[in-house]
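Lecture notes, unit on protein representations.

Consider one protein chain, 316 amino acids long.
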Amino acid sequence: MQNPVTFVDSHTEGEPTRVIIEGGPDLGNGSLRERRDLFAASFDSFRRMCILEPHGSDDLVGALLCKPVDPGCAAGVIFFNNEGVLGMCGHGTIGLAVTLAHLGRIGTGQHRIETPVGLVGVELISPTEASIENVASYRYRKGVAVERPDRDPIRGDVAWGGNWFFLAEQGPIALELHRVEELLVEARIVKEALRKAGITGKDGAEIDHIEFFGRPGLPGANSRNFVYCPGGAYDRSPCGTGVSAKLACLAEDGRLQEGEIWIQESIIGSHFEASYRRDGDGRIIPKIKGRAYICSEGRLIFHPDDPFRNGIAKHP
């Protein structure tokens, strides 16, 4: 029997994160990018065991705690979901910060987290609130028209916020929670249309997140969003990397000034408070603030004769 895996579960503005504390695979001491690639190539069964049913769910995002290369970092992390590994995860980093505080590994104040796409700044504001300074974000293509079968074209921007996004300023239908199943169908159609049209991120990277925007329902919010994630789930939070990509577009269009606050509401009515600064090279550095709460902690146990120990894959 595999050794039990120790975890702490939290949610950030409604979106769950499972931090793997102990029992993960030995990935060596290379860079976080190298360890992420090794994890994806050689330990995908571990990802499936931790994230898929019966031990997890399609909505869960995993965070494998790693020793950082930079000794000045509080932790290293590799994020993954029901589809595969991720470059960065904004809600997950907020959840990780609150988890590290819960474990007594960090206190309030400024910290740094090492990810496969770069260093991320974290400020733990309280035991249940944190802000992150994400990696530099940018718009790659503006106003891309995507042809959809039996539907009008949809127009949006392609942008990077730690993951690749197609951001449609106007969603194809109203962004209402009771219409989530319809929104999932619409997002899958857009994602497939992008693939067929050969529309990608930089260097041919797949655009694996689709983000629709609409009118907010929360007083004081600037916008509501719906975010389709790789693997077919939707983000309950406003999506930290998606908000980062949005900030880059707003900044480039002159619609949001440096330091100005943008309140992004999620499809379930939670929200992130977001702003940005420009670094010495003029790049957009997003700042995302949100709340996270510990839900549970325990051990995952994998029996060798369990026919579903490696998870139930719903998405080939």
